[in-house]
Specification:
Layout (H helix, E strand, L loop, with lengths): L9 E4 L9 H14 L6 H8 L4 H10 L8 H16 L6 H6 L5 E5 L3 H11 L2 H4 L3 E3 L11 H9 L7 E5 L2 H9 L3 E5 L10 H8 L3 E3 L10
Parallel strand pairs: 1-2, 1-4, 2-3, 4-5, 5-6
Length: 221
């Protein structure tokens, strides 16, 4: 794809932090549930370590520290997240209008499991926009920052990686998109970037462009 305003054959949206303003909610849940199991992790640390990554990454992180996350942790975390999302999750302002106005194929590729993604779309009213064009980390061997998920989504959508645009809010997601050979735009309009320099963070990760409002999706691109 040429630089400047792209004309992609496919646009891949991340879910958490791009379609729905979920990252602060999910990091709060992670901090609370880890605390119940005796692991001290602040919300800020959760954002730093696990933003845009799958639950498998949480287990791998603690295994690397010589600690084993108990068997009951993931079911309790999933339950807490789903309960919290059902009560408080909101869509990113303006995202519905942007997605519904697209004239090129698009899909969703998320590190979250399908139950969480489905609930997020249902609660925020975005489900009809994506139908069955939903791909999750459970479908591939390696999650973000590996390129596997984005490559899988592009293959399923019959698009060449070089003609694919990814919209991501996390360092791991940006890295995954670039590793897949795709153009990546960083989005920093989620609540988790309040007080953080998202422009610098995602630019350093390799984002081709960073923007903060869905109303600016095509502006300056």
């Amino acid at each position: 794809m040429e630089q400047g305003r792209p004309n992609p054959d496919l646009i891949i949206f991340d879910c958490d932090g791009v379609l729905v303003d979920s990252e602060l909610l999910s990091c709060r849940c992670l901090s609370e549930v880890l605390g119940e199991f005796g692991f001290a992790l602040s919300e800020a640390q959760a954002l730093e370590l696990f933003l845009g990554r799958s639950t498998k990454a949480i287990e791998q992180h603690y295994r690397g520290l010589g600690q084993i996350v108990p068997d009951g942790f993931l079911p309790r975390l999933k339950s807490r997240v789903l309960q919290t999302f059902a009560a408080a999750l909101e869509p990113i302002p303006g995202v519905g209008g942007v997605v519904s106005g697209l004239t090129v194929p698009f899909c969703l590729a998320s590190s979250s499991d399908i139950d969480r993604v489905s609930l997020s779309l249902d609660v925020t009213g975005l489900r009809p926009l994506f139908d069955d064009r939903i791909y999750t980390a459970q479908m591939v061997r390696h999650g973000k920052p590996a390129p596997d998920l984005f490559l899988h989504a592009a293959e399923q959508m019959r698009a060449a990686p070089a003609r694919t645009l990814v919209i991501e809010d996390s360092v791991s997601g940006v890295q995954a998109g670039k590793a897949a050979g795709m153009t990546v735009w960083g989005f920093v309009g989620g609540g988790h970037y309040s007080g953080r320099d998202g422009q610098a963070i995602l630019s350093a990760a390799g984002a081709d462009r960073v923007f903060g409002r869905m109303s600016d999706f095509w502006k300056g691109a």
